[in-house]
Write a structure and sequence with these properties.
Length: 283
């Protein structure tokens, strides 16, 4: 995936080096708070509540729930106005992605969000400004993958991935987008421009990680991108690990055991060691 490095200069976020990544995604467009005209936080200090990096456990995806609404920066400004009128201290999301795949800074990486009740201190919220019942453009999906990948870089590989509907009583982020996220954000259909050398290197790196530390629930439950990739592959092959959220729970362990039994030559441990990983992805 494309990783984008952000840094902070005098309170403004600016885009820095773009790094070509494992999926060969093109560079994305990024718009800072300053550039889209954000109001200062409506607090006495004029700043948002800081986010404690050590407490961040995952990424939650939202959508606008508005069909045929404003687009681009106008949608972001509309969100901010709506949230301020509700008495909140500013736009609630950490980042927003519009229908073209452009990423807008909401509260950024360093501030606590306000969009996911009960989880704001423990997650990064990312909102699609369109309606998630319909499939977005490929660029939108690529941008979601890029932001999630950058979240892993910022906070660690342990992060889970979830939707607002799994964290509260809501249908957000819509049927199509919600299903795509909960299935682990599988790659866009058009792979003609894929960076296959990068993909191969990515799998080789994952294999090295699993040789060093197999994926399982014990002695410590594993979380992160490698787990989500295994969950997606299990789903693709007809097994049922539950949502591809990047958390190695009971259902994932049971699906791994079922896969291992189906192979005939693997011991059914429920742990993804290098032999299980190879069988899962190469057969």
């Amino acid at each position: 995936m494309t990783a984008v490095r952000w840094k902070y200069l005098r309170g403004r976020t600016v885009q820095c080096t773009k790094i070509a990544g494992h999926a060969g995604l093109s560079s994305m467009q990024f718009v800072s708070r300053h550039e889209w005209g954000a109001h200062p936080p409506a607090t006495r200090s004029g700043t948002f509540t800081p986010l404690r990096p050590a407490r961040v456990k995952g990424v939650v995806v939202h959508h606008s729930a508005v069909k045929d609404g404003p687009s681009g920066s106008a949608a972001v400004v509309a969100f901010e106005g709506h949230h301020l009128r509700k008495g909140w201290d500013g736009i609630a999301y950490n980042f927003l992605i519009d229908e073209t795949g452009t990423v807008y800074e909401g509260r950024g990486w360093e501030a606590r969000g306000g969009a996911t009740r009960g989880w704001n201190a423990k997650s990064i919220s990312v909102c699609y400004t369109g309606h998630g019942d319909e499939k977005p453009r490929a660029k939108v999906l690529e941008s979601f993958q890029t932001v999630v990948n950058e979240a892993h870089r910022q906070f660690g590989d342990h992060l889970w991935l979830s939707t607002h509907r799994r964290k509260g009583s809501t249908t957000c982020p819509g049927d199509w987008l919600g299903d795509w996220v909960e299935a682990g954000m599988s790659a866009a259909e058009n792979q003609s421009n894929a960076d296959w050398a990068g993909i191969i290197a990515y799998f080789q790196d994952l294999r090295r990680q699993i040789v060093a530390s197999p994926l399982g629930r014990w002695p410590r439950r594993r979380k992160g991108d490698a787990v989500r990739l295994v969950q997606r592959r299990l789903i693709d092959r007809g097994f049922k690990p539950g949502y591809a959220d990047g958390v190695f729970g009971r259902r994932t362990a049971a699906a791994v055991k079922e896969f291992q039994r189906s192979q005939g030559f693997l011991k059914a441990t429920g742990v993804v060691d290098v032999h299980t990983f190879s069988a899962l992805f190469t057969q």
